Amino acid sequence: MIKIVRILRPAFARAYVRIFGGFREKSWLFWEVILPTIFMSSIIFAYENLNAPKVFIGFVVLGTIMMNFWYNVLWGMGSVLYWEKETGNLEVYLLTGSPLPSLLLGMALGGMFNTSVRSIAMILIGVYVFQAEFIPAYLPYAIAIFLLTLFSLYSMGMAFASLHLIYGRKGIRLNEVMGEPISFLSGQYYPINVFPTVIQSIASLMPITIGLDGIRRALILGEGLDTLWIHISILSIMALILFPLGIYIMNRIVEKGRRDGRLILRWI
Amino acid sequence: MDYAIETLHLTREFHTDEGVFKALEDINLKVREGIIFGLLGPNGAGKTTLIRILSTLLLPTSGEAYVDGFDVVKEANKVRKIINLVSGGERPGYGILTTEENLMYYAQIYGLSRREAKERIEEVNRLIGLDEFLHKRLNTLSTGMIQKYALARGLLNKPKILFLDEPTLGLDVENARIIRRLVRRLVDEGLIKTILLTSHYMAEVEELCDYIAIINKGRIIAEGTVEELKNMVSREVIYNIDVKAIETPKLEFLKSIDSVVGYTVRMSNISGEARIRIVMSYEDISRILDTLERNRIKILRIHQDRISLEDVFLKLVGRGLADD
Ligand SMILES: Nc1ncnc2c1ncn2[C@@H]1O[C@H](COP(=O)(O)OP(=O)(O)OP(=O)(O)O)[C@@H](O)[C@H]1O
Ligand SMILES: [Mg+2]
């Protein structure tokens, strides 16, 4: 009980900073919501001009939303942790003895709030402006798959964030490496069966690919548990592996940082 | 263990492009409970490195260190519970939040609930005096305010042992005095058991610290109370000689005089004068003045001075603490 409080309090405190600090920047709505929504709309316009089948609109909306969550892991967790180090906040945080995963969870929750607001805007635009069609019958499965996927993504985020501590500014390259190719492979704007089987199987190793496929099947194709159980099982196994792995990698890197003296070394 | 802080053969190396660099070498310190312990040394001496090891942010390469009896390597989490660290010139926190919100944030990181945090912030406020800027955003505070805020942050978890790394760095005389007075009060009133502070200001350490260790190039070269340290130069004779502006290198010739232990030069840009502070192993001022005159240095004033900590440093290291 006490332990949970020690984990959650710092996380909520950090999320509060992210969310309410964010509101104080008046441009928040523009950067966080309007701009990404315009970008998504431009993709949909392109599809419409090519007379793509209507299901593609829903594909694009869900794909964009999922990728947003992934980018939130990369930039909102990894790069933010780097800045926490540069400003000396990390040093002070580590002094408190609070677990580092709490800080990362706080950043993630804070970022997730923004991303959720953006996602809702995208769904509304998708449905009311572009007439995207979703089948709400299997929404609970979609939500379950979504949460499992998020859990895996944020577990991976812990490992990436700690790499940012060691590689400093070079970590931004890491984000690019982990961003574009994954967006490509996960089928952000198209179903991945456009790829040859080999690439499809590589792509399926990523939780985001499986999560996205599952959510699309539930909400667009109206498939139920008879196909989605595969997604749910694989994602559960991934979560069980990735979470401890993320914590392990992070602890190892922090330990290594304390040994090498790079943990709080600035300007790297 | 009876010491607040104890180190045994503590060594820290860094691997740099030029090879292995020893930032700390065989440090053996014993810090009694209930005092302000000063670590005095020039830039790059290893002060921050030592504080980082003691505050568990950095691991030693070899040797041991104990804080309140806890091993900083094996019992890091126990150490973290009873310490805090405030670094001068740093401004951790979030610029977009107010002082109060930032303190609230850090209190919650320590696991306090919002209500507990509020009470704690009030206590700290009464002690330090934050009213003037409690509701101002952090990014609008002056350096003096930031330093008070940083000190307030350092007290949130009621640490038993507080590390202060150059707590008055960059502050003007008035603000530095305020901070020093606060630091003294913390220990006098028993709010903090033991403080270890680093500084490269002689006067600060002399005024504030009950016990001092002088560190240079990663090694402790002397330690003791102010009196004990000053006794190390009790037989020496010290003069301040004010001269018309000169360039420091031109004074090299002073070194060849037998009686000269060391000297420092301080320029005054405003008056165009320079003050040579010279430590001699015996009274030999006439010889010095002769030599200065022979080298066409115009002497304005001479007076004998009492020993300061700086002279101890000068004697031990052969150069002034403030010299490059
Ligand atoms: N992470 C690191 N990697 C490599 N060298 C380091 C690292 N940290 C410190 N050093 C080196 O160790 C030496 C001691 O540094 P330290 O910061 O402890 O000195 P200091 O006494 O605090 O100096 P200052 O008064 O300038 O703050 C310096 O030469 C510094 O360059
Ligand atoms: Mg330092």
* Arithmetic mean pLDDT of chain A: 89
Count of helix runs of chain B: 10
**Main sheet strand line-up of chain B:** 7-8-9-4-10-11
Helical percent range of chain A?
over 70%
Structural class of chain B: alpha/beta
Low-confidence stretches of chain B: none
N-to-C terminal Cα separation of chain B, in Å? 40 Å
Average pLDDT for all residues of chain B: 93
- Could you say how many structural domains of chain A there are in total? 1
Shape of chain B: globular
For the record, give the distance between the C-alpha atoms at the N and C termini of chain A, rounded to a whole number: 39 Å
- Strand % of chain A is under 5%
Largest sheet of chain B, in brief, is: 6 strands, mixed
What percent of the residues of chain B sit in helical stretches (DSSP H or I)?
Answer: 25-40%
Whole-angstrom Rg of chain B: 22 Å
Order of helices and strands of chain A: HHHHHHHHHH
Give the biggest sheet of chain A: none
What is the molecular shape of chain A?
Answer: globular
Total number of beta strands of chain B: 15
Helix and strand pattern of chain B: EEEEHEEHEHHHEHEHEEHEEEHEH
Task: Explain how this protein is built.
The complex is a heterodimer of chains A (about 270) and B (about 325). Chain A has about 270 residues and is an all-alpha fold. Chain A is built from 10 helices and no strands. By secondary structure, chain B is an alpha/beta fold. Chain B contains 10 helices and 15 strands. Chain B has a 6-stranded mixed sheet with strand order 7-8-9-4-10-11, sandwiched between helices. In chain B, strands 1, 2, 3, 5 and 6 form a 5-stranded antiparallel sheet that branches. Chain B is globular, with a radius of gyration of 22 Å. The model of chain B has no long low-confidence stretch (mean pLDDT about 95). The interface of A and B includes residues 5, 10, 12, 98 and 260 of A. The complex binds adenosine-5'-triphosphate (ATP) and magnesium ion.
